[in-house]
Amino acid sequence: MPAINVRPDIYWIGVNDRTTDLFEGMWPITKEGVSYNSYLLTDEKNVIIDLSKSLKSDDYFDQINQVTDIKKIDYVVLNHMEPDHTGVLHTLRRIAPGLTILASQKAVKMLEDYYQITENIRVVKDGEELKIGKKTLQFFQVPFVHWPETIVTYETSQKILFSCDAFGGYGAFRGSIFDDEYEDFSFYVDESLRYFVNIVSKFTRPVLNAIEKLKGIDIKIIAPSHGLVWRKNPQFIVDAYRKWAEYATSPAEAGITIVYGSMYGNTEEMMNAVAQGITGQGVPVRIFDAARTHSSYILPHLWTQQGVMVGAPTYETSLFPPVAEVLQMAALKRIRNKKAAMFGSYGWSKGALTEMKKIIEPLNWTMDMSYEFPGGLSREKLEKGKQFGADFARLIKNGR
Ligand code: FEO
Q1: What are phi and psi of 368, to 5 degrees?
Q2: Model confidence at 139, in pLDDT bands (50, 70, 90)?
Q3: Dist. CA 310–CA 389, nearest whole Å
Q4: DSSP string computed for 333-369
Q5: Closest residue (by CA) to atom 1 of ligand 1?
Q6: Does position 44 have pLDDT exceeding 80, yes or no?
Q7: Closest ligand 1 atom to the C-alpha of 226?
Q8: Do the domains at 4-246 and 254-394 have one common CATH topology?
Q9: How many A from CA of 146 to the centre of ligand 1?
Q10: What pLDDT band is residue 1 in, cutting at 50, 70 and 90?
């Protein structure tokens, strides 16, 4: 993509990535893609804020040259050291050896560890300002959004917050980088939620701290390093991130996520009966086959919905492994404070329920209901499953 003017002398120069299959080597983005947004500010000093993953580097450097001589870059602000924003750093320094890196104190060791860079680094302090001509940059520490070294950069004349991972999302651009050029930007909102839960949900307190810290700043545009540039309504994505972060400690929405797996169809058929019971109570339900759905897509629903209904057979005296893996990832991402229930078929031994309780024990999930049944199905068993689903739905609906 060519460089795109965001404001006078401020350009988007990122990479629109539609070829990476797995973000961070594990989260699927094959269908959705992702962007690595980088920004070029031209003034008495030329500044790049955040770089890109090492991908399509020729195109990336061409974008810079469209605007200014790449050799005349004075500063590179590294808000965050993760290689999706620093991957081209080595090459850029070879092309523009005079540039100075601006970063937090905590980034200094990371620069050496990742790139063996120890010189031409200027540490910026929390709240520090740097005049680059008509424009002034101000730096704010926002540790653990997403790593401990992370800062955000605010350009005071145009009131743009370059927020890096904060307020970002998956999703390659589908024609525009700006929120106001889409009739419907729900794709980006959905992908922002998936990104939030996959990447930063472990750090909800730092996210809320950052929002609190930045609330006194007049922000006209939020320019993150993934996803849409929010220039019509920057508050929209701030409010969304705040709401999602608050779900870590407050009740989520009154819906139920069914995560199930089935070896021979018995637990699956029971799942249909349970779902029928839930739907009959007017409670929204989403159903995920854990063996066929990457946890990346399941976690956002676990995060935003209050109820979790697990359907899993006992497998070798334990919880059916694909379902166990989803719950283990939920534990890693600190998806806490849910109401849960469990059902499933067993053959020669129970064990699934016990194993599930072990996994969710540190997560402060309440679990008072379970329905394990031997072998196959009968009309009576299915009717019991439907009632089981209805009972759980009432519990969610009534907030008990
Ligand atoms: Fe987009 Fe934490 O890097």
Answers
A1: -110, -5
A2: very high
A3: 11
A4: TT--S-EEEEEEEESS---HHHHHHHHHGGGT-EEEE
A5: 165
A6: yes
A7: 1
A8: no
A9: 7
A10: confident
* 185 Cβ contact partners less than 8 Å away, ≥ 6 residues apart: 179, 228
137 Cα: distance to centroid of ligand 1 (angstroms):
21
Looking at ligand 1, which residue's alpha carbon is closest to its atom 3? 82
Question: Look-up: residue for tokens 């995060």?
Answer: 303
Residues in the chain: 400
Q: Read out DSSP for 38-102? A: -EEE-SSS-EEES---SSSHHHHHHHHHHHS-GGG--EEE-S--SHHHHTTHHHHHHHSTT-EEE
Q: Which amino acid appears at position 214 of this protein?
A: L
Instruction: Quickly state the pLDDT bin for 251 (edges 50, 70, 90).
Output: confident
Ligand 1 shell residues, CB under 6 Å:
80, 82, 84-85, 146, 165, 225-226
Q: Which atom of ligand 1 is nearest to the CA of 164?
A: 1
d(CA 292, CA 7): 44
Q: Work out the widest C-alpha separation in the chain, in whole angstroms.
A: 79
Contact 21, 172 (CB under 8 A): no
**Is 400's pLDDT higher than 80?**
no
Residue 235: what pLDDT?
97
The kind and range of the H/E element at 254 are strand 253-260
C-alpha 399 to ligand 1 mean position (Å): 36
CA of 132 to the centre of ligand 1 (A): 26
Annotated domain spans of the chain: 4-246, 254-394
Strand-strand pairing, 314-315 and 136-141 = unpaired
How far apart are the CA of 165 and the centre of ligand 1, in A? 5
**CATH code for 4-246?**
3.60.15.10
Neighbouring CB atoms inside 10 A of 8's CB total: 11
Q: Does domain 254-394 have CATH number 3.40.50.360?
A: yes
Residue 47 C-alpha to ligand 1 middle, in angstroms? 20
Chain position carrying tokens 């159903």: 287
Mean pLDDT of 379-383: 98
